[in-house]
Every structure is written in structure tokens, then in C-alpha cells.
Amino acid sequence: MQTENQTSPALRSCKNYVGGEFVDGGRPFEIRNPATGDVHAHAFEADADIVDAAVAAAANALKGDWGQMPLAKRRQMLNAIADGIEARFDDFVEAEIADTGKPYSLADHLDIPRGAANFRIFSDAVANLSTETFQQDTPDGGKALNYAVRKPLGVVGIISPWNLPLLLMTWKAAPAMACGNAVIVKPSEETPSSTTLLGEVMSSVGVPDGAFNVVHGFGPDSAGELLTKHPGVRAITFTGETRTGEAIMKAAAANVKALSFELGGKNAAIVFADADMDAAIAGLARAAFLNTGQVCLAPERIYVERSVFDTFVAGLKGKAEALKPGLPHADGVDFGPLISEEHREKVLGYYQLAVDEGATVVTGGGALDLDDAAARGYFVEPTVWTGLSHDARVCREEIFGPACAVIPFDTEEEAIRLANDSEYGLASSIWTTDMSRAHRVGEAMEVGISWVNCWFLRDLRTPFGGVKMSGIGREGGVHSINFYSEPSNICIKL
Ligand code: NAD
């Protein structure tokens, strides 16, 4: 069995991982490091034969060792996967950095630790599951016992984005596997490396062949669409753009696949005059610019009570200008590039549109010119606007870059109305020292999660997901278990 994926010392090679082996075949495509623009890897686009083979391998795993594995052993296996990620921690960090260009400190503190933690968390989550039991009086005067058994869905397709590649993919692969499903992952075409590495870990820790498979490629007319249309796949769990979710929903209709969608956002933050202003400025600067704004939960609209508006804007400007852009390993760098040239063009298009729509550019607003290798990277300036109408396109459309509009408000009711006036509904962040108000406003928000005096903080057992066009369903803790397994009722006439 071929468990090593590397074929060239110079360039990483991301092969498809099917039935416990890295298989040859598929059209090669280039993977660039966004911090330098250099090609650092090749991935191989899975064609219909490779996707078919992955589905067959997953189905066989369900009939074989993986499907027969007792829960206790499966839980041990998940912990072994987490150990395996940690044992190759540096390799994962380097893979993630090479694909995304993100600062070393971010991959080291967030992406890879959470990638490992997801397996431990869902190993725990399936430890003590119960199901419903009802004893029923029957029409003939007897009794019947009804109880549910929980079963895996079968073959689950996982389609993931590029912004937090390992973290978001394992957020779905771990609970799906914990519930006994066999998975086929289609990572983003921009970031195939850490998922490929996870294939190596799966083989090295002895996960049964076919329980975890990886197919590389693009969305439409490629591996993504092949997976969503495949009759052997029972469910698709997807994180990505809302319009991609719409396309997947149509494709998945053919055999009525179960769907879980974590989609785009246009998140609002609300800063009241009574907030701890230093904390609000620091917290929202982090929220707006972490991972170069490429976080679905990032606030791109910040509503600030008029009496503290100027103080807040000055503080946010200072934080944005203090960020240090550069290559991932350079000293003190905390601000990386955007994922691709194409995405940079999109974000710069919004920078121009903001000006056209009447913005005052408080800071940033353009591309970043850096020295050395980073000069070829896809860097843009962290950007803050004021003077925009709440109805401006840049205040309604998801930019997915390091930019936010700061808009004043006068009353709590106005802040709630403006924050909720969006077709999206993923997250909000409320800053106030009045806890009655915090609860009142938090409850009024049309979102899946409202943070108070914080952002990105979350017990992973809580429900996570979006409302409106930000998603379908909830994942996290038992909510993930409820999606990745289904109860089957047994009724015994006593
Ligand atoms: P994307 O939708 O362009 O791509 C995501 C994945 O879908 C990729 O693997 C891609 O190849 C695949 N894909 C694209 N078209 C497809 C099709 N027709 N059929 C099957 N697969 C297809 O998203 P992205 O640009 O990689 O990620 C950024 C987006 O993800 C943003 O909108 C962001 O808000 C969202 N996001 C949401 C969450 C959340 O938890 N709600 C988390 C992270 C990112």
C-alpha cells in the first residue's frame, strides 16, 4: 500500500486518497502560495472514475471493518487521528501556510490545534448518546415497546472552503466519522495540502481503508459537482459561498441527499456608548482583520452609537495601521495575503466601489506594496470606511476581505433594525456593559450566534450555523450528531 503521498522533494504533490491509498491519475493543477505567488504544489483533479472509486471504497468500508467497528474502538481511532495530527504538527502548519499564506502564528495557534481538537471533541460527543424509548398501550389491550437506534447516514460528501482549511474540514469529517459514516472530502482547489496530509495520518494510525477518502478538484463540472450528484452519496455537508450552496442544493435534489450548509455572511457588530471602548476597539479590530478578513464570522458592518463614533473610528484606524503584513514566517507578522489574485481583484473592486458609493476612506483602501518575495503576494491594505449609507452595496454584499464600514446610530431600536436588515444571518457581536440590553439585543438579532463583548469565542458543544441565506441546519456537539446519524425506530409488540 502506498501511504506516502510525496513524489517530489521540491513541490508537494496532492494525490487523491481512495480506499486507504494515494492513487495515480487525474489532471494535475497548480497550487500557489498566496504570500509569494509561487507554485508550491500540484494537486490532481479527480475525474468521474476516481470519484466513483472513492464512493465504492467508502461503501465497502461501511460493509467492512469500519462499519463493524465497536463504538469504543471508533472513539479510540478518533483520538489516534488527533494524536497523529499533533505528531506531525509542524508538517500541518507548513502545509496550511504554504496554501494560504497566513501568518505562522495563526496556523500554529488556531488552524492546526483546532483540526486535532475536532476529533477529540466528537470522540467525546458520541460517548454517552441516548435515544428515545416509549412504552405504548396497544388497541388489543397489550403493550408495545418503541425505541430508537441511531445509525450512520452512509457515505457523506464533505465540501470545504479555503479560509480555514483543516479546521473547517475536520469540523465535519470528525463528527461524520464519529457517527460511523464513511466520508469523501473535496477540499478547496486552493488549499488541498492539509487534507492530503490528513490522508497520510489516517493510513498511519490504521483507520480502515475507505473510511476517509479525498478527491481533489474544482466545483462545477469537476469533483465537487460529481460528488454532489453521485447516487451513492447520502449526504452533503458544505461550507462555502451562498451561491455555491444554491448550486449544490439543486444537484443534490436528484436522490434527496441530506444537506448541512454553513454559508456566507454580512455580519454586523453594534457598539453602544456604555461599552468598554478599549475592549470594543481591540475586539472588533481582531474580528475584522483576523485571517485578512477571510472569516465567515467577520463583521463587515460596525454600527456605533453616535456619541462614541469618532473615538471608535480613531481607535480602529490605529489598530488597522499597527498590523504587520508580510511573509508567514517573518518576525511579528500578523497580517497575511488574500487567497488568490482573483480574490484580490474582487476585494480591490469593492475598495473602488466603496469610494464610488461615497465612502470616506479612514485607512487603507488599496493594494499593499511589500518588498522581496511578498511583493508578488496578494496583499491588500486593512481598510476602514465611514460615510457610507447602510444601503450601499459594500454594506450589503459579502466582501470576505479586511474591510469594514463604520456607521453611526442613535437608538437601540435603530441599531437592531440596521443590523437585521440583511439577507444574511450568520453572526453578530454586541458591545455594552448593560447586560439587560445585551440579552435584549442578542435575542433580537436574526443570526445563528450573537457574541457579547467578545467574538469567535464558542464552546464547541453549542449549536453553530446561520439563518436566512447564511445556512441550513446546526452543527456542534449533539447538533452535529443529529445531522450525521439518524434514528431508526424499533417497535416490539410485547
Ligand atoms: P466556495 O463556495 O467558492 O467554495 C467552497 C467549496 O465548494 C470549494 O471546495 C469549491 O471547489 C466547492 N464548489 C464550488 N462550486 C461547487 C459546485 N457547483 N458543486 C460542488 N462544489 C462546489 O467558497 P470559498 O470561496 O472556498 O469560501 C469562502 C466562502 O465560504 C465565503 O462565502 C464564506 O463566508 C464562506 N464560509 C462560511 C463559513 C460558515 O461557517 N458559515 C465558514 C467559512 C467560510
Could you explain how this protein is built, in words?
The longest helix has 22 residues, at 104-125. Residues 1-8 have low confidence and may be disordered. Strand 2 and strand 3 (21-23) form a beta hairpin. The protein is globular. With 494 residues, the protein is α/β, with parallel strands linked by helices. Helix 4 packs across helix 5 (104-125), helix 5 (104-125) runs parallel beside helix 6 and helix 10 (277-289) crosses helix 11. The protein folds into 2 domains: 12-263 and 470-493, Aldehyde Dehydrogenase, Chain A, domain 1; 267-459, Aldehyde Dehydrogenase, Chain A, domain 2. Helix content is 38%, strand content 22%. The N and C termini lie far apart (51 Å). Bound molecules: nicotinamide-adenine-dinucleotide. The site of nicotinamide-adenine-dinucleotide (NAD) has 31 residues, from helix 8 and helix 9.
Q: Which residue ranges are poorly predicted, with pLDDT under 50 across at least 5 consecutive positions?
A: 1-8
- Compute the number of strand runs: 23
Instruction: Characterize the main sheet.
Output: 7 strands, mixed
CATH class group of the largest domain: Alpha Beta
Bound molecules: nicotinamide-adenine-dinucleotide
Rg to the nearest angstrom?
A: 24 Å
**CATH domain topology of the largest domain:** Aldehyde Dehydrogenase, Chain A, domain 1
* Ends apart, CA distance between termini: 51 Å
Percentage beta strand: 15-25%
Using the 3D structure, state the CATH architecture of the largest domain. Answer: 3-Layer(aba) Sandwich
Helix content: 25-40%
CATH-level-4 superfamily name of the largest domain: Aldehyde Dehydrogenase, Chain A, domain 1
Strand order of the largest sheet: 15-16-17-14-13-19-20
Mean of the pLDDT scores? Answer: 97
The tally of helices reads 15
Query: Helix/strand/pairing class, anyone?
Result: alpha/beta
Q: Given the C-alpha coordinates, what overall shape results?
A: globular
Overall tally of domains? 2
